[in-house]
Amino acid sequence: MTINRKKIVLDYLNTLDKAVTAKEIAVVLSLDRANVSRYLNELHKETQLKKIIGRPVLYQAITINSDNQEEDYNKKAFSRLIGYDASLKEMVQQAKAAILYPPNGLHTIIFGQTGTGKSLFAECMYQYALESSVLAKDAPFITYNCADYAQNPQLLFGHIFGVKKGSFTGAAQDRTGLIHEANNGVLFLDEIHRLPPEGQEMLFTFIDKGIYRPLGESNETYQANVLIIGATTEKSDVLLSTFTRRIPMSITLPDLVERTVEERYELVDSFLKQEAQRLNQKITIKREVLLAFMLYQPEGNIGQFQRDLKLVCAKAYLNFRTKKGQSLKINQKDLPFQVQKGLLSIKEMSKQMERLIEQDKAEFVYVPTSERTENLSKQSNETIIDPLIEKNLLKKTNEHLLETYRLAGSGHQEQKSYFNEYVKTLSTTADIRKHIIDPVLKELVEQLYLVAKERLHRSYSAKIEFAFALHLQSALERIKAKKQITISNLNEIRKNYSKEFQVAIDLSAMIEKTYSIDVPFEEIGFIALFLTKQEEVEVSKKQGKTTAIMVLMHGKTTASSMMETVQELLETTVGTAINMPLTMRVQDMYQQVRQTVVENKEKYQHGLLLLTDMGSLNTFGNMLAEDLGLRIKSLPMVSTAVVLEAVRMASIGRTLEDIFQSCQTVLKSSTKQLTVLDAKKTKAILVTCFTGEGVAKKLEERIQPVVDAAKVTIIPLQFLHREAFKQQIDQLMETYDIKAIVGTVEFDYQNIPFYTAYDIFNDEKLVLLKNQIEEELPINEMIQSLTGTLKKVGSVQQLMYFLQKLLQQLKNELAIMIPAGVETGVLLHLAFLIEGLKTGTIIREFSELDAYAKKNRMIMDIVKATLIPLEKQYQLIIPEDEIAYITQMISENKIKTH
After folding, report:
1. Contact 36, 9 (CB under 8 A)
2. What is the DSSP string of 427-476?
3. Measured between alpha carbons, how far is 630 from 754 in angstroms, rounded to an integer?
4. CA pseudo-torsion sign 634, 637, 640, 645
5. CA distance 387 to 372
6. Average pLDDT of span 256-272
7. CA gap 91, 108 in Å, rounded
């Protein structure tokens, strides 16, 4: 964010006692050099720093002298408030005037809704009084909430003014009040409107004359010098007019809705930094989450804003600690519904968002400040569940499910219902942890089901075999520990499934022979249930249980035209389309979609797949799921092919998960074809100077002899200004594959390598340009050679295109280029790494890993984050040593241009 980063630059300069360059600041703060230069020039114009003209230009903080030292101190008290120099600027000036007004300041009342920060503002006023020497350094700051004893005026008055012995029943001794304790300091009375009229009258007598009487005192008066600061959520008319007249300074704090978007960003940023430090963990927040918090309007203002943020952090921390997530991440689905609704305003605020948040960043990371906590965070984030712990976790889950089943009803239908749920939950609980099943047990289960298939003449899915293996694993441990499991409905199982029970007896004999144990009858009952008809275990697709498909797209007829085409091709009525004209507000579109679902909610009970094109429509899925309590999945950037696949699968009764996975495959396939088409474009080099002639002509003559004119086109261009030049490049990229830009003006765009005129007249750099342009990535040859060699990765073609996409993403993230030969090597390395990890043959150590990781932590983190989709796709974890090897390959072979 511009304001925030500018402040960071200024704060950093204030810590230095020397002049520095923009480049030095950019390196230290990890900011873009051009942006830093802009911030510095703006700060110079605002007279907040000195600019020393020279080569290079230097910048230095303005030294504080005795004349302005006091003013600098004064700024510190209110700098705790976000927006102190923006939306709160006028209020801060009022507060300063109230504190500095002679002889003892002005009594003040702060108006504002719940959560606007009244208490914090009062504390800042007190701090300002100390820094300005209006109050002594040891002056008290006493706070009291008038709502505490609002129903008992005697206690309330006694608490504020003190109590004289015997003044009321229970007053056994004299007791001083808050005014006495606050003498020569500040008394902050929160919820001051809860002070009864008599209390207000007693207080304004003290304000008028500086004297007061404790409760029950009739003769003697006491003096005190106290500055009163009150706060209330009500309007001034709820207080006595005689009271408000005696408080000359009134300050009204704005609601959060009146604060700037920049300040809301600072609120999120500040709070997440505090939480990262407090939790001692790195927090990763998705772009949509940041936008949602910046745009939603909490009724409880900043107070609720922080509570909602804390709730989201707590939920993310719980997921992290229970190993549901690999790191402490906050996604859109973690947000309360009222926060998600903030995304509906993104269309109206799009320009401000573009100015504040980097457009190409999908995630934002907040880390603890100290190196120690960073290391702890790293260790915690990278912890892998010990196989033994994982096995015990599954064992406990299995026992819990078994206990639930055992306590269920005994009727035949109830048996099957509960058992089906047991099998379903057991198989999904284990997800990808199949490796924890003992190989001997796995082989035994395969033999058991071969016998069962032959004896019962039926087939069984891999899912139920896997669930049975997990169940049997726990059963063996239970039998060895001599733990008895009872089934009250065992006789009914024997009667209802007599064939299966007889086969189960024979199978139990195979188990007994393998493990030298006695299998109890109760366990045989469970084996019989696992052998029942497969169609009873798998819930059948009944008539009417169709997954709903909805297409949402921008434009007057885009969605409806696409859906009509698909329905006509498939001769079906499945699917709904809703168009969003460009003049339509996002909030209105959301309400229309919501109303469509609500009006026919029964139609959506079996899941809804939302297919969208772009923008705010992509956020509707999570919001509708939470709003209406439905199972919803979303897929953005869809095409007619994707809609066709979704409607086709929904028409034949496939589940939401099946349809979603299939559509993802179609989407990836479409993207892959586009990539292949792009590769057929003619390669080109752009040569540029201010005139498009002269120097450009010389550069073209220098490049021409070293490239193949039949394969590479050299295009001279005039460089007018950066934006116009970008537009020219965009137009050319529709026809050409632009491999490099050569020119007199340094230009960075679309990760295209840039070579200066000086580079081109350097033979070594010219050869580098030649090799980079002529080398092609032999992806098809690689696929052919690896097919048959890689046996554990599934489709080799799918793997290689996936790796190629990730490597391109990695180059973009690191803003580097690597030679095509090296890129081929990296792809091959990754392919064999996946194969090795799948077969368990990759076990090697990176020499001095800790030292290398410390030196290259940022690059390693980017590599690791980029490869997360690869880990998920192939259900594995890439070790830290291998991350280091990949980082080393890329870092040591990147192309070094000017």
Report:
1. yes
2. HHHHTTGGGGS-HHHHHHHHHHHHHHHHHHT----HHHHHHHHHHHHHHH
3. 51
4. negative
5. 28
6. 85
7. 12
Alpha carbon distances (Å) from 77 to 4, 92, 690, 765:
18, 10, 52, 56
* The one-letter amino acid at 433: R
CB neighbour burial string for 811-840, b if at least 16 within 10 angstroms, e if fewer? beebebbbebebbbebbeebbbbbbbbbee
Q: What pLDDT, on the 0 to 100 scale, is given for residue 182? A: 93
In this structure, which amino acid lies at residue 703? I
- 867: tokens are 């490869």
Q: Is 206 exposed, middle or buried (0-12, 13-18, 19+ CB in 10 A)?
A: buried
Residue 255 gets which letter from DSSP?
P
Q: Classify residue 64 by its DSSP letter.
A: P
Lowest mean pLDDT among 64-68, 597-601, 687-691, 851-855: 64-68
Residues 288-307: pLDDT tens digits?
A: 888 888 888 888 888 888 88
Distances (CA, A) of 244 to 5, 108, 785: 42, 10, 87
Q: To 5 degrees, how large is the angle CA 502–CA 503–CA 508?
A: 100
Among 4-8, 332-336, 847-851, which is the least confidently predicted range?
4-8
What DSSP character marks residue 220? Answer: -
Q: pLDDT tens-digit profile of 84-118?
A: 888 898 899 899 999 988 888 899 999 999 889 99
Consecutive H or E run containing 715: strand 712-718
The arrangement of strands across the sheet holding 608-612 comes to: 576-580, 548-554, 608-612, 632-635
Q: Could you tell me which residues are beta bridge partners of residue 810?
A: none
Query: To which residue do tokens 């993310």 refer?
Result: 316
Q: What is the dihedral of CA 29, 32, 37, 43, to 10 degrees?
A: -50
- SS3 state at 559: helix
470 phi/psi in degrees, rounded to 5: -65, -40
**Does pLDDT of 816 surpass 90?**
no
Return the C-alpha torsion angle 384, 389, 393, 394, nearest 10: 90
CB burial of 779-792 (b: ≥16 within 10 Å; e: otherwise) equals beebbeebeeebee
**Residue 752, pLDDT score:** 77
Torsion sign (Cα): 238, 244, 245, 248: negative
Strands 283-286 and 363-366: antiparallel
Are residues 642 and 635 in contact, defined by beta-carbon separation less than 8 angstroms?
yes
Q: Which residue has the tokens 């990836």?
A: 668
The pLDDT assigned to 295 comes to 84
CA distance to 604, 643, 644, per residue, from 564 (Å): 20, 11, 10
Query: Is 407 buried (19+), middle (13-18) or exposed (0-12) by CB count in 10 A?
Result: exposed
Please say whether the beta carbons of 60 and 13 come within 8 A: yes
**Cα torsion 236, 239, 241, 242: sign:** negative
CA 432 – CA 875 distance, rounded (Å): 7
Q: Which of 390, 532, 393, 542 is nearest to 464 (CA)?
A: 532
Mean of all residue pLDDT scores within the chain: 77
Region 414-419: what's the mean pLDDT? 59
